[in-house]
Amino acid sequence: MPQLTINGKVCDFEQGQSILEVALANEEAIPHYCWHESLSVVANCRICLGEVWAPNPRNEGKLEAWPKLVPTCQTPCSEGMVVHTDSPKAIGNQKSVMEYLLINHPVDCPVCDQAGECHLQDYAYQYGRAESRFLEAKIKAPKKDIGEHVLLYSDRCIMCTRCVRFTQEITGTGELIVDGRGATEQIDVFPGMGLDNELSANVVDLCPVGALLDKDFLFKKRVWFLTKTPSIDGLTASGDNLTIEHAEGSVHRFKPRPNPAINRFWITDEVRYGWKFVHSEDRINMPSVAGMDPWEDEQANEAWMTALTTAAETLRGKKVGVVLSPMLPTEEAFRIAEAAQALGQEVVFGLGPVPMHGEDKTFKDGFVLRAEKAPNARGVRAAVGTLGDVHEWDQFLQAVDGCEALLVTGNYPSAWCEGDALTKLTGKPMVCVDTLHSPLTEAATVVLPGATWMEKSGCFTNATGTVQAFERAIKPVDFAKCEGWIAEQLLAESHGNTAEVFHACAVRERLADAGLSQFSNVVVPEAHRAVESDMTTVEI
Fold first, then answer.
1. pLDDT for the residue 427
2. pTM across the whole model
3. pLDDT in tens, 367-409
4. Three-state DSSP class for 153?
5. What residues form DSSP beta bridges with 151?
6. What is the pLDDT of residue 192?
7. Which pLDDT score is estimated for 539?
8. Which of these, 481, 484, 532, 472, lies nearest to 251 by C-alpha position?
9. Residue ranges making up the domain that contains 478
10. What is the pLDDT of residue 134?
11. Is residue 407 a part of any domain in this protein?
């Protein structure tokens, strides 16, 4: 392969790659604002300029310096090229660019939500001056509400135009524009046309400074107090890769995690803000048994023992209809199905309802917004299918009349069983494992509080058949338990022995051994460990 040298490091490259792309691929840091690998190259921030020497074929291939600094994001590599972004000349440019960008910047880092993950802040430490030479008054620009989820602080904007290119090249909606010239140049929206596409909040992730802010996260938490856990979209069939950012047992925000094969660099607003039900006031946090008084918090262990025993007796020796939710991880659905088989004399498996909203929508860069609003219908079908036939929801409702008892799992982000389906299910003894109170849980014989996907480990199979694993981000709220644990307890009740510890990876191995090769060698993403700090959080 052809090679070039960047800051003393020899790097291989492919034809057509830019210097910046090769540098980043080889972990050689070059400062940049406007460049993003999913967007067109505009080279307008100028902080990535480098000093380039290249062989001159007219001078026996001797290295000669190019007459001026060039943007590394826009300059293609060539054989034998030598690039310096750490030379005095290049560093001088970086310092000048930083000084220019900070002339009208408010430097309000203590109150800016981007503090701690801001490129401008980081580069100011590396390349900025300790004091300003600017004597004139700063130009003040207004704050603007530009969409349902996004605020624009124009005075912080450095005009990298990432957001504008995103709405032009990715969503194709073009809501954002550049208005004005020179020092009065601003990002803006057309009058009466807000930023309202399905991917709108991705501009917040793209913004390298604190100009575009998420209304939902505004002033909620400092980012250095957040723990970041890699996870998978648990609301739709897309299987989008994301990061759950949480602190002290509470989720604070979702961020997209790059995966070129699935979601590229984006997540939908639907997924980004769809986690709120995990902390809903309607969460079920304690088991309950029909006809018994509610338990107090200090009676949680007794509540679980009684509820599990009652659940086992409700199902034992009967023909059991089992609703396996497509919101469950594959491993938990499989163990719930095994528990039902162990307790019941006969079982009828049914896949819970798979919500469909409209049709799939493909954006300009290939990102797909899925109409299917369940993350794991395919995984549940495949895994439970090794134990018996899995009926679709409508078929199951027809077959449920012949069942003597029901084991129902939910885990949907909102009420999911209504109308005729509710009538069909509520006429029989029922064990319901769910996360939110609903008419279904009100009618159940036993209610066991389950956990959301953020509170457990497992894997989902997305719309294209890709199996992706995820780890638990936060503990289940209050006294809720993951469905895998509940399944192991029910299996112990059926066998009269001590419950085993539920391990998602062990269940995946069993599925792979049963001939489902897609569950072998499933990679679990590595968690980003929080930096330890001696700072304590002080509540005022």
1. 84
2. 0.91
3. 999 999 999 999 999 999 999 999 999 999 999 999 999 999 9
4. strand
5. 145, 213
6. 83
7. 54
8. 472
9. 281-519
10. 85
11. yes
Q: Report the CATH number that the domain containing residue 332 is assigned in CATH.
A: 3.40.50.740
Residue 247 placed within a domain: no
Based on the fold, state whether residues 64 and 140 are members of the same structural domain: no
**What does DSSP assign to residue 317?**
T
Distance from C-alpha of 195 to C-alpha of 214, rounded to nearest angstrom: 12
User: Do 289 and 414 share a structural domain?
Assistant: yes
Whether 264 maps to a domain, the answer reads no
Helix, strand or coil, per DSSP, at residue 128: coil
Question: CATH code at 188?
Answer: 3.30.70.20
Nearest Cα to Cα of residue 152 among 172, 174, 177: 177
295 and 204 part of one domain? no
Rounded to 10°, the helix 88-102/119-127 angle is 130
From the CB of residue 166, how many other CB atoms can be counted at a distance below 10 Å?
Answer: 27
CA dihedral 33, 37, 39, 40 (to 10 degrees): 90
Tell whether 302 and 397 lie within a shared domain.
Answer: yes
Cα 535 from Cα 58, distance rounded (Å): 61
**How, if at all, do strands 346-351 and 176-179 pair?**
unpaired
Specify whether 514 is located in the same domain as 465. yes
Q: Which two tokens stand for residue 267?
A: 């997540």
Residue numbers of the chain with a pLDDT score lower than 70: 528-540
Domain co-membership, 391 together with 451: yes
Dig out the tokens for 66 from the structure: 């190019």
Residues 6+ apart with CB under 8 A from 281: none
Q: Are residues 376 and 469 in the same domain?
A: yes
Indicate whether 237 belongs to any domain.
Answer: no
Q: How many structural domains compose the chain?
A: 3
pLDDT of residue 45: 95
269-294 exposure pattern, b = at least 16 Cβ within 10 A, e = fewer: bbbbbbbebbeeeebbebbbbeeeee
Q: Among 172, 518, 529, which residue's Cα sits nearest to residue 364?
A: 172
Query: Among 302, 387, 285, 378, which Cα is nearest to 341's?
Result: 387
Task: Quote the tokens at residue 398.
Answer: 């027809």
Token code pair at residue 233: 């979209």
For residues 60 and 40, what is the distance between their CA atoms, to the nearest angstrom?
A: 36
CA distance 384 to 390: 7
